[in-house]
């Protein structure tokens, strides 16, 4: 079996869906992200980017949450689909 | 008879305060907890001729992220030990909301889970298996609509069952991986010896493993104030100072 290719959320294109595999954010912010649904195994969809490319809106657990690159570059997942909803 | 205390916990925007206002009506006032800039509401309601004191905790997604709101909600549940903690969930986004429910249920089994906005969920085609959720969580689960006054009597009946002790449950026991369980097993005897029987030892051990300094500070505060011998205080609160 080949190992899934993991990319940071910050690199995923708009409309793509990823299954979260690891969260490298530490400390209080890690806890906050976990509480918001950024948990390994959960599926996140990249909704859109703001005009300057940051922050990015993500759809997770039925809620839209915007993350800055500082955080989204430390959350890794594997692609599980394109723009189909 | 002293009134039963019911603490209302829940995520923001779950209709927690709508339910609180519906039950307590005009009989409420806002309070500001000592040492914290957290405003909360307290009120009263009656059911089957029993008086209940209701406390509206701040709406939070978690009890662990250490904002003032979350610390206040956590400390209330741990230290004030309400007769019932009512966890209000949004039926249209249960997955997110169950996070807080699990956190509360690991602390106490004296809880009722209330799934609000059930009419909204039905409109969205969401079906919720209350029996299955109740079986998994080990506490009564009731679906309501606070806004349209659906299921309120059933909810009050379940609150009464838990408050009166007709229904009792232990805190929810979540099995963690081997490493964490080993840590808990090592800490548990020390925790039990230090904090006594009145606090949920397994949960405190878990928080220690997580390095929760805010809880440590709260506990320390609490323990220090208890070690000061004050017989009047002990009698007033019925505290058994046997540790």
UniProtKB/TrEMBL annotation, chain A:
SMART domains: FeoA. Keywords: Iron. InterPro entries: Fe-transptr_FeoA-like, FeoA, FeoA_core_dom, Transcriptional_repressor_C. One of its GO terms (molecular function) is transition metal ion binding. It holds the Pfam family FeoA. It comes from the Bacteria. This is Iron transporter FeoA. It comes from Paenibacillus albidus. The lineage of its organism: Bacteria, Bacillati, Bacillota, Bacilli, Bacillales. The gene is feoA.
From TrEMBL, chain B:
This is Iron transporter FeoB. GO terms for cellular component: plasma membrane. GO terms for molecular function: ferrous iron transmembrane transporter activity; GTP binding. The lineage of its organism: Bacteria, Bacillati, Bacillota, Bacilli, Bacillales. It comes from Paenibacillus albidus. Residues 3-165 form the FeoB-type G domain. Pfam families: FeoB_Cyto, FeoB_N. It comes from the Bacteria.
């Amino acid at each position: 079996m080949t190992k899934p290719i993991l990319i940071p959320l910050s690199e995923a294109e708009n409309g793509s869906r990823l299954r979260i595999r690891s969260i490298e954010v530490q400390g209080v912010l890690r806890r906050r992200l976990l509480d918001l649904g950024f948990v390994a195994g959960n599926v996140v969809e990249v909704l859109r980017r703001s005009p300057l490319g940051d922050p990015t809106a993500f759809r997770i657990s039925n809620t839209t949450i915007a993350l800055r690159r500082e955080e989204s570059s430390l959350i890794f997942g594997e692609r599980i689909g394109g723009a189909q909803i | 008879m002293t009134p039963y205390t019911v603490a209302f916990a829940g995520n923001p925007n779950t209709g927690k305060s709508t339910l609180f206002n519906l039950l307590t009506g005009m009989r409420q006032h806002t309070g500001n907890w000592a040492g914290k800039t957290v405003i909360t509401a307290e009120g009263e309601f009656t059911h089957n001729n029993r008086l209940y004191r209701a406390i509206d905790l701040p709406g939070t997604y978690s009890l662990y992220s250490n904002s003032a709101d979350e610390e206040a909600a956590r400390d209330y549940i741990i230290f004030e030990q309400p007769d019932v903690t009512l966890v209000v969930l949004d039926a249209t986004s249960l997955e997110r909301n169950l996070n807080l429910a699990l956190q509360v249920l690991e602390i106490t089994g004296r809880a009722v889970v209330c799934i609000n906005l059930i009419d909204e969920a039905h409109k969205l085609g969401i079906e919720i298996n209350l029996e299955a959720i109740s079986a998994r969580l080990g506490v009564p689960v009731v679906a309501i609509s606070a806004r349209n006054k659906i299921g309120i009597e059933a909810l009050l009946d379940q609150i009464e069952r838990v408050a009166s002790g007709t229904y009792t449950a232990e805190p929810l026991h979540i099995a963690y991986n081997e490493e964490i369980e080993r840590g808990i097993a090592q800490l548990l005897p020390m925790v039990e010896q230090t904090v006594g029987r009145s606090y949920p030892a397994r949960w405190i051990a878990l928080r220690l493993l997580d390095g929760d300094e805010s809880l440590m500070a709260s506990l320390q505060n609490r323990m220090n104030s208890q070690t000061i011998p004050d017989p009047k205080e002990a009698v007033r609160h019925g505290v058994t100072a046997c540790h």
